[in-house]
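Customer ticket, subject: "Can you confirm the structure for Abasic site processing protein?"

Message body: Hello, I'm evaluating your service for our small team and ran a test protein. I'd like someone to confirm that this is what the system normally returns, since I don't have a reference to compare against.
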Amino acid sequence: MCFHANVKASAQQISERFDLQIPMGLHFPKLFHVSGFRFPNLPVALSEAPTKLNLAAWGLIPSWVKSAEDARAIRSKTLNARSESIFEKASFRDSVGPQRCLIFATGFFEWKLVGKKKFPHFIYCKDQSIFAFGGIYQKSPFSEENNLSVTFSIVTTPANELMEDIHNTKKRMPLILPFDQTKAWLDQSLSNSNIQSMMKPYEGKMGAHPVALNLKSSDAAGPEVMNPVNYPELNFIQGSLF
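Agent reply: Thanks for trying us out. I re-ran your input and got the following:
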């Protein structure tokens, strides 16, 4: 799964990396840790405007939702979209064909279960300092300001070897796209079979390390939230991970 992200890159850095235009007035703070359950705005590129950097809110509101109350109720359940069922689920099937997006990040957080205790880890791409999650999006009139807003879900896939060890309960991971596939993900002419073929565990180089246990309460944290922490309970496995 993917419910906690790290976006410490600036709009300018993302723009330069992915060759995107920055609209006038677009800005966002560095997010060293942000929880999807707070439905934050994150930097994205949309298939309908693939050359522009935009902001969208985490937690997709499906097109068939008819009230703000229903929108609030469903959003915590649509932070992620499973690749295996994305074409069948009512919440996602209208988006996956024409409305795909890139969600830009510099890392994410996941928990490893050891005994009865969970240990958070910061996870990143060694071969992409700024990378893109593959996602889907919808436009909805039910934002906090009651204006039209774009909302998204991050696609998830089965875990790769590293993520199987860290996310050792459900063994899932976010869809991380290789850099050379990012523009293709936004191509609205892709067939369902082409889209499905892109939704697979990341094969690039990744790194990870344990971080502080109070992570979930640290949305306003600074870069220290990424600092490595040594837990005796994990010492016997560290050599196999890093």
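A couple of notes from the result: The CA atoms of residues 48 and 99 lie 7 Å apart. Confidence is low (pLDDT under 50) at residues 237-242. Feel free to reply with more questions.
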